[in-house]
Each structure stands twice: as C-alpha cells, then as structure tokens.
UniProtKB/TrEMBL annotation:
Bilayer-crossing regions: 20-38, 81-107, 128-149, 180-201, 213-232, 252-275, 359-381
Pfam annotation, one family: BPD_transp_1
Originating organism: Alkalibacterium olivapovliticus
Superkingdom of origin: Bacteria
Lineage summary: Bacteria, Bacillati, Bacillota, Bacilli, Lactobacillales
Cross-referenced CDD domains: TM_PBP2
Protein name (database record): General L-amino acid transport system permease protein
C-alpha cells in the first residue's frame, strides 16, 4: 500500500498566511510614506533655516494664562504653559462628559414619558439645541448670559454660591499636608473592602447563610476611614466656603465666565445627541420585556431601572463613545471666548516662538491621546456589559 504525500498549500493561497502578509505589507508601505513625508518636511524646514525640534519648550513663555489649574507664572517655560493648556482641556472635557451623560439620559427618558408636557419639553430641548451651532451657543452663553450679570462687588449669592460677570464661585475641597497619605490609604481600604466583599459573598453562596456582603464591606470601609480620621484628627480635605467681602469673593473655587460658557455649551449640545441615543437604545429593547414587567406589577420607573435600561445600555455604549470623542474635540472652540485650553495656549506659543509644526504636532498628539484613552475605557466598559453567548 503506497502512502500518498499530502500536498502543502502554496504560500500565496494559504488563508492564514496571506492576511498576515497583506497587513505587514500595508504597515510597511504606510510607514515608508510617513517616513518620506517627515524627511521631506525636515529638509524643507532646514532649507529655510528652521531646525525641527522641541528644545524651544525650555524657553521662557512670557505670557499670562488667566485660568490655570496648576501653578504657572510668566517666567515659566513654554512646556509648562502647554501643560496648563492640556490640564484645562482635560478639565472641561471630563466634567462636560459627566454632565452631558446625566442630562442626556434624563432628557432621553423624559422624551419617552407618558406625560405629554414632559415629553414635549424634552423634544423642544433636543430640537433647539441640537440644530444650533455649538460655537453660537458658546457666544450666547458668554456674551448674553454671563457677562450681563452684576459686577463682583454686587455678586448674587445663592446660599454658598456666588454669581457675577466674572463667573461663579462655589464651595470646594482644599487639600492639606496629609491629603496624599489619605488618598493612598483610601485606595488600600478600597482594595481590602473588595476582598472582604468577595469573601463574604463566597461564604454566603457556600454556606447558604445571609452574610450581607455589601453592607458588611461598607461598614468595614467606613470603620477603617473612621480610625484613620481619629489618628490624623482631620479628613482627607476640608471644605472651603466662599465669603463675599464686599469688593471680591474669597474662598471656594472660582469658575471664570469663559470656562462656564464652554462647559455649559458642550454639556447642552452633546446631551441632545446622547438623549436621542438613549431613546433609540431603550426603544430597541423588545416590547415583550416591557409587557412582562407590567404583567409582574412593576411600576414604570422600576421597570426602566431594573429591566429595560440595563438591556438598552448594551446598545447605547458604542454610540456614546462617538459623542464623548466629539465633545473632547469640540472643546477646541473654547479659544473663541478666551478660555486658554491646549489650542488657545498652542496658538500663543506658535505666534511667539514660530514653532508652528512642533506645536501642531503636540496638539494633535494630545487630542489623539485623550481620544484613544476614552475609546479604550469605553470599549472595556462595553465588553463588560455584552452578553456572553455559550
């Protein structure tokens, strides 16, 4: 009996090898094109007497930044000024995403409400602000809402909050010398509490005894923090309450008019899109789920919270990611009203140093870093909520 040799598949027809070869070839071609582009750019700059590099970041900036979250003065280098702009972009984007998500979810659910007035108000909110340019909304908030407010000497006080044409002053937490130690301890307590929760949960499953894992682990966390408070005799931070002194407002956290205009405009504009995403996600859940909750006697709010929305969130998350990325990139419009985020600071640095290409490269890298980080987080979050098929 003769044995027949199995013919090997030619390399150019192997379904496993061919895709890898094509991907490697694509990366090689794109890498070559990018390298040629960079080299031509550097050669062109050298011909006109400009050397590409980032050494200028150590030079003195010499310009002021109105609202800096970190220590900055005119004697600091350009690198420090750019860092201030990055922190400002991160600040307005972070709080904008949180506020837009909360408002968007509430408006989206309100639009589906059986209450006619509530549904119409939500619809008008979405139609008006979604179809109005974002830059126009920023201008209206800045020049027509905040700047006409009273001067700082006649600041309007609403409890511990103060409003004037300079912005708002709100109560805020202030740090002290033991804050960082507190933060490290709290992080350790959270990890310890998690392990206590898992242990109690496993014990409840194995022994069939109700150990109240959530409440018990919460008590452990609070007890550890209480002991730490007795040792340090102070909390991780103290609350600074604003006080109006007649000529100014001292204490608290000061939020300038440009920052509030940009934050509110980004929040309102993005929340309209999030509201429609939420509405579409909820309506995509099979109607049988709603009918089942009614048959079981669930109230509408309870059914939405426990049954409908947890299923809709699997549909909502991927589309929310796009809106978060748009909000981060739209924050570059802040320079129109004088809020100095990365683009505003970058333009000043370009005008003073003449390093246009380097600054543009830094700005692109910053937005790319923020966008990729947001995408990675949202993709991880989305993966955790997806149904696991067996």
């Amino acid at each position: 009996m003769t044995s027949q040799k199995k013919k090997s598949t030619p390399l150019w027809r192997n379904k496993k090898v061919v895709p890898i070869i094509l991907q490697v070839a694509f990366v090689a071609v794109m890498g070559t094109l990018i390298w040629i582009l960079i080299q031509n750019t550097i050669i062109g700059l050298e011909r006109i007497g400009i050397n590409f590099g980032f050494g200028f970041l150590d030079s003195r900036a010499g310009f002021n930044i109105n609202e800096a979250m970190i220590d900055y003065s005119t004697s600091d280098p350009y690198g420090r000024a750019i860092l201030v702009g990055i922190v400002s972009t991160l600040r307005v984007s972070f709080f904008g995403i949180i506020l837009a998500t909360i408002i968007g979810v509430l408006v989206g659910i309100a639009k589906m409400s059986d209450n006619w007035l509530l549904s119409k108000v939500a619809s008008i909110y979405i139609d008006v602000f979604r179809n109005t340019p974002l830059l126009l909304q920023i201008f209206i908030l800045n020049f027509a809402v905040f700047l006409p407010l009273p001067r700082i000497q006649e600041a309007v006080g609403v409890g511990p909050f103060f409003l004037s044409n300079r912005g708002a002053v709100i109560p805020w937490l202030s740090v002290h010398e033991n804050t960082w130690i507190w933060l490290l301890l709290i992080a350790g307590y959270l990890i310890a509490t998690f392990f206590v929760f898992k242990w109690l949960l496993n014990k409840e499953v194995e022994d069939g005894v109700n150990t109240h894992p959530f409440i018990s682990s919460l008590v452990v966390f609070l007890l550890l923090n209480g002991i730490t408070f007795l040792i340090f005799r102070q909390g991780p931070a103290y609350l600074s309450i604003p006080q109006h002194t007649g000529a100014a407002v001292s204490g608290g956290l000061s939020l300038t008019t440009p920052f509030l205009s940009v934050l509110f405009a980004l929040t309102i504009f993005t929340s309209t899109y999030i509201a429609e995403i939420v509405r579409g996600g909820v309506q995509a859940v099979p109607k049988g789920q709603t009918e089942a909750t009614k048959a079981l006697g669930f109230r509408s709010a309870t059914a939405m919270r426990l049954v409908i929305f947890p299923q809709a969130i699997r549909i909502i998350i991927p589309q929310m990611t796009s809106q978060y990325l748009n909000l981060i990139k739209n924050s570059s419009l802040a320079m129109a009203v004088g809020f100095q985020e990365i683009v505003g600071v970058g333009n000043t640095v370009m005008n003073q140093s003449g390093r246009t290409l380097e600054v543009i490269f830094i700005m692109i890298s910053v937005y790319l870093l923020f966008s990729l980080t947001t995408s990675l987080f949202m993709n991880y979050f989305n993966k955790k909520f997806q149904l696991v098929e067996r």
